[in-house]
Amino acid sequence: MNTSSKKRAPLRGSLIASIGVVAMIAVGLILGLYGTSQASTGSGVDGGTVTVGTGTPASVTCAIADMVPGDSSAGAPIGSKADSTCSYNVEYTGSASAWLAVDVTIANGSTALYDGTATGLQLYLKDANTSYLTSSAPAAGTTYQTAAGTASSLPATGIQDLLVSTTAASAGTAVGFFLDYALPIASGNIYQGGSATVTLTFHAVLAGTNSLPGTCTSAGNQCLEGSGFAWS
């Protein structure tokens, strides 16, 4: 993992990408149908490309650290917007149509930066059409949509199986994802020196023999296994 941070003042916001430079994810993962993966690197404003087939998840990891109250990335709705958005493309390369989902896993450092409250780290995950994570801070913290379409607080450890689309992806289907973050201005000293690692894992399962449950009706909502449906 390469580390890059801004030094304008102590605890300045930054991103540490698992593969990449200048606090941007720049990842290329090539996953064949039921195959293994091979990694390559790149850089730029658009980040990199995650190409995923069925059967083998593809992950990208960002660590957020060195923030002061009011710091945020460019796409966040609050804060300075002075830091870089973590952006990248996801392309499905399997030979048969598939359902796609994204898991969000959060791991805090020795001092927690993300705690699910309205004063801790806020996360925003979206693509061009769908919001997966959002926040109304300072009123409330980060939320995701349950299978029933109800906004629920994002647990400190993250959430699994957020549906990318109710239309099965075909070979070459690509989606651009953007992960933003903010530390509200009202945050206190409890977060000083805090850090949090956010891992996004994309996975696909064949659609032909694996129909979505009737509860999985909206992109961005959690899509739970059941009625013969199972994520790989």
Please give the structural blueprint.
Layout: E1 14-17, E2 27-31, E3 37-41, E4 49-52, E5 58-65, E6 86-92, E7 98-108, E8 122-126, E9 131-135, E10 142-145, E11 151-153, E12 158-163, E13 174-182, E14 195-206
Parallel strand pairs: 2-4, 4-6
Antiparallel strand pairs: 1-5, 2-3, 5-14, 6-13, 7-12, 7-14, 8-9, 8-13, 9-10, 10-11
Structural account:
The chain is built from no helices and 14 strands. The strands form 2 sheets. Strands 3-2-4-6-13-8-9-10-11 form a 9-stranded mixed β-sheet, with no helix packed on it. A 5-stranded antiparallel β-sheet has the order 1-5-14-7-12, with no helix packed on it. 0% of the residues lie in helices and 38% in strands. It is mainly β. The chain is elongated, with a radius of gyration of 17 Å. The chain has one domain. The protein has strands at residues 14-17, 27-31, 37-41, 49-52, 58-65, 86-92, 98-108, 122-126, 131-135, 142-145, 151-153, 158-163, 174-182, 195-206. A hairpin with a 6-residue loop joins strand 9 and strand 10 (142-145). The two termini are 27 Å apart.
